[in-house]
């Protein structure tokens, strides 16, 4: 840990472990894939994606980046660290600074604050394209269900691909709806 001022960002949450276990169970191979992690925190999920071959961008708020960089330096071999980078991404603010050609968008326990949901959806839409697979592992809170069952389904197809009832974590797979489907769902 870099410092106690990082609050929640210095904790490895159950949702992150569930997403890592899913990568292992599904034998995920990110070789040659462009991956971005939202709200990286400790970077555990993004670091694993790098170790599984991904070209990964780990993102979070500015004060969290030194911790992520330190964890990357300590856990990603020098021979592959060039495929990894750390960047500031504030949802709803600078998402347009990033491309929309990611193969995967990943995030763990990023759906927790009702006030950030519209910014998160705006960011997901900006970073994704019809071929992007989004994997979000979420601790199931009452507001989390609202996000996954009602808000996100306007713009994305959503399905639960893994559920850990002991940890109360669901893993959602999202893909962009085609424009015609989006228009139908809004009517």
TrEMBL record:
It comes from the Eukaryota. InterPro entries: Methyltransf_16, SAM-dependent_MTases_sf. The keyword Methyltransferase applies. One of its GO terms (molecular function) is methyltransferase activity. GO terms for cellular component: cytosol; protein-containing complex. Gene3D superfamilies: Vaccinia Virus protein VP39. GO terms for biological process: methylation. The keyword Transferase applies. Keywords: Methyltransferase, S-adenosyl-L-methionine, Transferase. PANTHER family: EEF1A LYSINE METHYLTRANSFERASE 3, HEPATOCELLULAR CARCINOMA-ASSOCIATED ANTIGEN. This is Methyltransferase-like protein 21B-like protein. It comes from Callorhinchus milii (Ghost shark).
């Amino acid at each position: 840990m870099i410092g106690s001022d990082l609050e929640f960002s210095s904790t490895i949450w159950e949702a992150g472990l569930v997403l890592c276990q899913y990568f292992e169970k599904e034998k995920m191979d990110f070789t040659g894939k462009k991956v971005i992690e939202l709200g990286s925190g400790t970077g555990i999920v993004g670091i694993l994606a790098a170790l599984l071959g991904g070209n990964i961008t780990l993102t979070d708020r500015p004060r969290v980046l030194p911790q992520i960089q330190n964890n990357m330096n300590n856990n990603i071999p020098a021979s592959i660290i060039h495929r990894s980078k750390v960047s500031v991404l504030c949802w709803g603010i600078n998402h347009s600074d990033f491309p929309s050609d990611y193969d995967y968008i990943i995030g763990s326990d990023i759906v927790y604050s009702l006030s950030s949901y519209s910014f998160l959806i705006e960011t997901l839409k900006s970073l994704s394209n019809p071929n992007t697979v989004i994997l979000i592992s979420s601790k199931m809170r009452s507001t989390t269900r609202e996000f996954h069952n009602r808000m996100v389904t306007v713009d994305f197809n959503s399905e639960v691909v893994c559920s850990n009832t002991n940890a109360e974590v669901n893993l959602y797979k999202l893909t962009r709806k085609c424009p015609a489907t989006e228009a139908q769902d809004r009517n």
